[in-house]
Structure prediction request, 333 residues.
Amino acid sequence: MRQHPSPDAGPFVPGGEPPAPAGTDRAPAEADLELLLRTGPFHLALRAALSLRGLPLQRVQHHLAGRGVKVGVTSLSYWQQGARRPQRPESLRAVRELEAVLKLPAESLIRLLVAEGPGGEAQRPATRSYRALVEASGSVERILAELETPQDGGLHTVGHHERVRIGADRAMLGRDSQQVVRAHRDGIDRYLAIHHGDPGCDPARIAVRAGENCRTGRVRWQRDTGVVVAELLFDARLRAGDTYLFGYGFEDGTGGPSGEYVRGFSFAGGQYVLQVAFDEAALPVRCRRFAQVSAGAPRVARQDLTLSGRHGTVHFVEQGVRPGILGVDWDWD
Prediction:
C-alpha cells in the first residue's frame, strides 16, 4: 500500500488535516453524517451524530431517561467507540430513541446494525500498518524541512487525474499525474510530489519523471519508510490567483504485490480522478473504492468498481475533495 498526501496540502499525515492521530475526532459536516448513515459502520455514524449535534453523553443519557429508556454513559461511550454493539432488546430500543434524540431519520442507526450483523463490519487487513504510516509522515516532514518548503506549498489543487499501473507480477509499476493547481500567493514556482512505495520497495531505484510544463529539481528519499519526495520546478513563476497545468510520474516496480492505492488530503480541494490499470495477465476478482476519516479509522463509503477495457481498468471521480483519505483496494483471489 502507499499513502500519499495531496502535496499542495503540505506534509503527509495519515488521516489528513491538519496532522491528527488516529481516533482524533473532528466535527463532521452534515453531508459526512448523511454518508455514514448510508454506508456505516454504526459506531462512526453514531459518533458523527453526537459530534454534529454537540450533545455530551450525560445529556444524551438524560434525554433517553425522559423517554423511559435507561442506558449508562459507559454503554453509550462503548457504542460510539465500536468497543461494544447494542444487541439486547432494551439496547435496540435505546438506539431507536437515540435516532429521535439526535434528530436522525427513523431506522437509520438500526438499519446499520442489521446490515453489519452481530459481529459488526469486518475490516480488510491493512497492507501497511498505521505505525509505518506515521513513520512515513515523519520522514516527509523532515525532508520538507530540509528543502525549506512551507507546509501548504502556496498551492491548492483545482483538478488532479492520477493513473496507477499494476503489472503482471501484481506489483505497482508506477503512477502518472496530470494536475491543475492555483497559487494563493505570489512567487510560487515549484511543487513537491510525494511517493510512498509498497512494502519491500527500494526508494533508491524509484525514478521521478517530469512531464509537461515542469522539470525535476531536488529528489530526496528515505529507505526505511519507502518515501520519495521530488521537487518539480515550473516553467513560470506564478502570481496569486494564477492556475498552472503540469504532469509528472513515478516509475516504481520495486515493491511486493499491491492490494490498494490510497491518497490523503489535508485540505478541501477540487476534482480528483483515480484510475487503476491492471495487466491483462493479472486481473483482480474484485475492486472497491472507499473513504476514511483517518488512516486508523474504518473504511466507509465502499462501492464496488467494475473492470472495463481490454486491459482492465477501474476508476472513480470525486467532484469536491474533503480532508481525509480516498482510495481503491482489490482482491486477487
